[in-house]
């Protein structure tokens, strides 16, 4: 019998259409993304990179309403481990995205830490490990961000562990959670990135359930991941090799992840994100249709 996952709200994101940047000739036009995500059977989307979708709330609302779509979250990128000196520029970027996110009726802001190596060129930008002082900056900075975003825009921040950032492995994710206030900072658990970095999503949900505020559903091809690890490939080239794959063909198995999330007894978004930048423009829709069908078979 198929389980009933009535606390899980499934959606998708521009990422699943190969969109990583606000403007890039290799990406599908935003109108096509909206048409196809609705056609695939999703009703929730994320904003994606700021500026990809229209940033005028009236126009964007009209475009979404015509396709029966709603926004679950916006996304921001931060480098708060660098300390108070980056606060003003960070807040300027966050305010822009948070304002639109709030205007679209969403309640979450996904916060991605900055990369320590460039995802296009593989250039090492910073040491891959933080110092104790930088961990302190990161924790206090995220708490400050969580407080200010909530007070100013009424949104909850959910921090997204990500490959090639300083919040990646099980040890680093747990360190981050243990050093931040759960009233201000929670987690967007991306099942693919966590598996990419060696983590167990079900274990994390069962251990830190009260900190799981949002989910990204993604799978990793274990054979390609083994090559990536052996050759120390950066995330961008790994994606081009197909390391993030169509479910249910990779790891982690999504059924137990969704069941563990359902067992938390709270409403959670579970947004499909299959990194495919760059990709043929005709590739995403059939995958999205099959993925939605697979998730329905899981009860979501």
UniProtKB/TrEMBL annotation:
Coiled coil: none annotated. One of its GO terms (molecular function) is isomerase activity. Keywords: Isomerase. Residues 34-297 form the Xylose isomerase-like TIM barrel domain. Gene3D superfamilies: Divalent-metal-dependent TIM barrel enzymes. Pfam families: AP_endonuc_2. It comes from the Bacteria. This is Sugar phosphate isomerase/epimerase. It comes from Streptomyces thermogriseus.
